[in-house]
Amino acid sequence: MIGGGQGAFIGAVHRIASRIDNEYQLVCGAFSSDAERSRASGLLLDLPAQRCYASWQQMLEQEQALPAHERVQVICIVTPNHLHFEPAKQAMLAGFDVILDKPMTFSLVEAKELQKVVEETGRLFCLTHTYTGYPMVKEARQLVKSGKLGEIRKVYVEYPQGWLSTFVEGTNNKQATWRTDPAKSGIAGAMGDIGIHAFNLAEYVSGVEVTQLCADINTVVKGRRLDDDGAALLRFSNGASGVLIATQVAAGEENKVKVRVYGENGGLEWQQEDANTLLVKWANKPAEIWRTGGGYTSSFAAHNTRTPSGHPEGYLEAFANLYRNFALHVKARQAGETPSPEVLDYPGIKEGVRGMAFIENVIASGKSTQKWTDFII
Amino acid sequence: MIGGGQGAFIGAVHRIASRIDNEYQLVCGAFSSDAERSRASGLLLDLPAQRCYASWQQMLEQEQALPAHERVQVICIVTPNHLHFEPAKQAMLAGFDVILDKPMTFSLVEAKELQKVVEETGRLFCLTHTYTGYPMVKEARQLVKSGKLGEIRKVYVEYPQGWLSTFVEGTNNKQATWRTDPAKSGIAGAMGDIGIHAFNLAEYVSGVEVTQLCADINTVVKGRRLDDDGAALLRFSNGASGVLIATQVAAGEENKVKVRVYGENGGLEWQQEDANTLLVKWANKPAEIWRTGGGYTSSFAAHNTRTPSGHPEGYLEAFANLYRNFALHVKARQAGETPSPEVLDYPGIKEGVRGMAFIENVIASGKSTQKWTDFII
Amino acid sequence: MIGGGQGAFIGAVHRIASRIDNEYQLVCGAFSSDAERSRASGLLLDLPAQRCYASWQQMLEQEQALPAHERVQVICIVTPNHLHFEPAKQAMLAGFDVILDKPMTFSLVEAKELQKVVEETGRLFCLTHTYTGYPMVKEARQLVKSGKLGEIRKVYVEYPQGWLSTFVEGTNNKQATWRTDPAKSGIAGAMGDIGIHAFNLAEYVSGVEVTQLCADINTVVKGRRLDDDGAALLRFSNGASGVLIATQVAAGEENKVKVRVYGENGGLEWQQEDANTLLVKWANKPAEIWRTGGGYTSSFAAHNTRTPSGHPEGYLEAFANLYRNFALHVKARQAGETPSPEVLDYPGIKEGVRGMAFIENVIASGKSTQKWTDFII
Amino acid sequence: MIGGGQGAFIGAVHRIASRIDNEYQLVCGAFSSDAERSRASGLLLDLPAQRCYASWQQMLEQEQALPAHERVQVICIVTPNHLHFEPAKQAMLAGFDVILDKPMTFSLVEAKELQKVVEETGRLFCLTHTYTGYPMVKEARQLVKSGKLGEIRKVYVEYPQGWLSTFVEGTNNKQATWRTDPAKSGIAGAMGDIGIHAFNLAEYVSGVEVTQLCADINTVVKGRRLDDDGAALLRFSNGASGVLIATQVAAGEENKVKVRVYGENGGLEWQQEDANTLLVKWANKPAEIWRTGGGYTSSFAAHNTRTPSGHPEGYLEAFANLYRNFALHVKARQAGETPSPEVLDYPGIKEGVRGMAFIENVIASGKSTQKWTDFII
């Protein structure tokens, strides 16, 4: 693991996710750019001192030198955005498979370069867009793919948060501080932190791609250096249209990701607050409540569920689904086997590039006086 | 009553609304442009034959000729949009107070002219934007006004319906037929039918006015002559921003009007499906469930509620609140009294003009390649 | 109308319910046992002075003396429980049809006598068990009757309120005062006020009758003279079992009536708080959300709905459904026609007798040391 | 681990729960009474062959013989009920701390004997009543303890499931087969499987103990050998009363555990389907939505939450909370430290004895013709 030392939020989440299905073992780490801090963090995680590295460069170098059966296999990178690209690239060049937190890189240029690295090294790559790990989100995608809803016409996605309603970066809030710092986050704040999740969710569930957008991007809180709010009108490859909302100043909201997709015959609705439910709506019959663990769900939902219906699985299990599928892919490749489509259904380099393109396109649109702008990669 | 003959939807709703609080008596009507049909409809409503008029012109003329104590006092107009302006204008010129269904007129030009008629005749005027009749919508407005949420920053409003997901105007659907006919509806379909409700709700609750917008207006169903779908990015007078969604092709949706408003300290959420509840969210304490009939609600909510908390009041009662407040205003004026602010809180000519401006502005923006357009009246 | 003078709750509700569908006109009343108060109440309701009677006896006498076309047709009685039986009996003997608020009488003995009066006079009789007037409650009954759920096994019904959590009868609360006074309420408090509704709802929806019960009846608030809380284990005629909960000391609850019924193949759930929804659950497929106004509902639900799906109808419309169906029955009889089953589906004398039997049985069981007691009429 | 071989449900859940917080490592197991099956299961779990034991007796013996630092520390027992007592007893006698699945033993006699073993050996003991591991259940308990709701008056708890609606034990359903077999389950079916959870939850949240009960216990499905349904009226030590419902024949229900507690001033409601929410209701102000991760929650909720508010944690995290607290207790004792009250808040031997007493009392009451029976331990 690179990053995720003491006090980090997402690092701990990654570690839990990796443990849930027993497919990973934490064997080494460069948990901080501060060598001492990295070492302390690693020891707290029961690592032997010699595998708590002073830097990620050191880690890659020394791990490569280990015999294959001792060597780390998958490198997980959970640093702030500006420290995604280089370690990811070097890890793959060093022969490791990589799990990387979103947004994939600091810029679209980096993203495309990383894509080349993936293609050239042939390493496996997973980007942790957590929400697509939820079984009912997978079910939603499968329902759209089945054609039962008919051609998709409308896609609404929203991600309201409230935690940046005040100038918390002025307090001692580590999470807020780097996320609102252009040098660490990149050109986007809310759009890069949560808008990108909404975008990924919209494309994943609807199965169609954004081709044009028209965005309103705002910095609501005085003194903030990046956007903390935005919305975009969307047009999709098949002619569908939609709306994306992402804000971090909806005071009182937690993390209420929600996606709705409507086709000619019906629609679907999923929201994280009720994550084990997929509402399926029909034009001429009662709406249905599809549930995690229900015997009627697709193999994609079933594959990503651990307990019988009625036992809520949550955010950590969704995260763990990414980890598990990636592990199964890694193992299958080692075994020379072809993984099932269910295993392969995790976000990777393509989603990463599109996500970075979203950031650049949505920020550009926000600044533009032109109404519709093409979604350019 | 003008319009609302057999088979009409909204005419029957108006009549129920007028009865609920016993403030009105139906005394005459021109229920259809077809004289025979008007008469038949009136008889079914237990009117004496001589007050079932062949036309609204006849009605105004003959009612004026009646002695004051027999004469109709309030004229309620529930015709399709193209037949709003002229009867409303003539009714006021003839000395009657008027209740008019939304959208107020066929065009903004008519709306402004009607505004002049109201000003010049001094007649009372009510426009039936039903959703602002709900007690918890009134509570929402009062909460914003109280300043407890702080300065308003975000306004999200949506009105998804699904009943026009197919080309129902090609079947024998009376409601769909006139609503999708430019000669009867005006320049807008979904925007004039439901978008205008969403717009009115957003301004009413937030207490701020739209100053700019950027709209995506679509005709999704093949062969349809007016828009059936749209969304708009909004900017408000106080610097707040927002999103308005209105669609009639969200297959499987009924009538799920919903409004969310966020200020510096918290937010609120109301949706028609759970009309007796107002969710109030705070940045640093638990969200609260405010309920119709709760002893803690404002005088505005209390005034518009008939039953103790726990007895759901619905759409018809919301409608009846408009009717009741208008009647109390009419009576107060007759008695030379000043009505309370609670009574005066019903939509009128100003909301009507802004609504028609919304229609013209949103449709224009939909056609424009310019991103933000000023909201012009 | 007998009872329902100024300050009464349920009288006003009855009047609204009677107006909604325009089938009734208030023509006379004895609104209070205080002649002056009765007169004042009637004048406020726009009645002519001569039809504001000093007593219900006077009303029956003088109305009988009027010519048939001027005479009141239906007598509606909304007095406290101890004043139900005599006016209802005399009204029927005087040739009027009767609408009576629940519980039907002061005692089971009176109830059985009233049943005889109904049988002997042949008058029509309606008891206002409001909850069975909700379209989705009717739908629930029809679903059970259809056999789709299979043989019914479990019936859970609950009615939690919180308004009697403190000794409010010690304050100036009119509603609480008579309801907790044995001389006015009868032998039961909560059981007679709301337990009886729960009982009626359980039998109506499940289509099976309680044959045995085992009750725990409590007076929780110190100083109270009647029960304010209870629960009962139930056994039904077909072998099903169930639980009934009714309490007025669930502090913080409003009026959350809820019924759940399970058969071999699935179950249903309805609650007043979301009155326009019926949840239908299946053993092996997704649960369904049936909605008022949905095209797939039975003729019984459709007949009792006024607006298209998505326009919430509430408590007052449920009440109005009782009134409307009774009016249609009265008119059909006058016209010598047979009403449809949908019209006839309103609570009457049979439900009244069973309800009074419930009160006596449940209170007796509460006092008994015997576990199961037969439900005796 | 004892039990939990291939095909077992709860064994896998225990293992996930043990991994989430990285406090445990699976080091050995006797996963099945079939030696070969045990070995195969262990190998699949990456255990070395020599620590996949042929029987739990062998495991205890051989592990005891290992040097302390290699030896297993905590024995987790996840066998069917009839195989709880003996291994738990022997494990403690052999010096190991024990985690045991519920119900604690096969009978109350065994339970009391196990209690003596705990007292005499001084070993630590955890019983996995999962629902009390949910942070919002802990919050509920703390809220009651704080006194803000006032003296508790009513306790309603319910646990409806539908998976035993048909004779599934006649099919090849392993879970159903042993649960409906008196030789493996004990004297109770539904009461021992889920009723005991409901009972534990009721006492845990309300902070008062059941002193009397009156139960209706049924075997609804033909041919079944144990109860699959029941309900009980409850009386509590402080004078409160309540109702417990547990059924496995509510066709269409999943696992909808729900508890409601009302005091003089307000009430609370928690249900597993919305596990991250605690509804707090007040007599005279709006109900509140308390959420996992909310800054206003108690130290008990906060201690048992991993992610910020808005990231749903579910059943596996609730389970993991038991595991983590037990581990922290074990470690604290090793370190000679006193654990915090938050750590000590996990179910143990006392809850186990009361749970077994519940089973015996509720089944006895179900058979009794006496109404109220004392809750005897």
From TrEMBL, chains A, B, C, D:
Family matches, as Pfam families: GFO_IDH_MocA, GFO_IDH_MocA_C3
Domain called Gfo/Idh/MocA-like oxidoreductase N-terminal: residue spans: 7-126
Organism (species): Mucilaginibacter yixingensis
Domain called GFO/IDH/MocA-like oxidoreductase: residue spans: 138-269
Transmembrane segments: none
Name by which UniProt lists this protein: Putative dehydrogenase
InterPro entries recorded: Gfo/Idh/MocA-like_OxRdtase_N, Gfo/Idh/MocA_oxidoreduct, GFO_IDH_MocA-like_dom, NAD(P)-bd_dom_sf
Top-level taxon: Bacteria
Gene Ontology molecular function, alphabetical: nucleotide binding
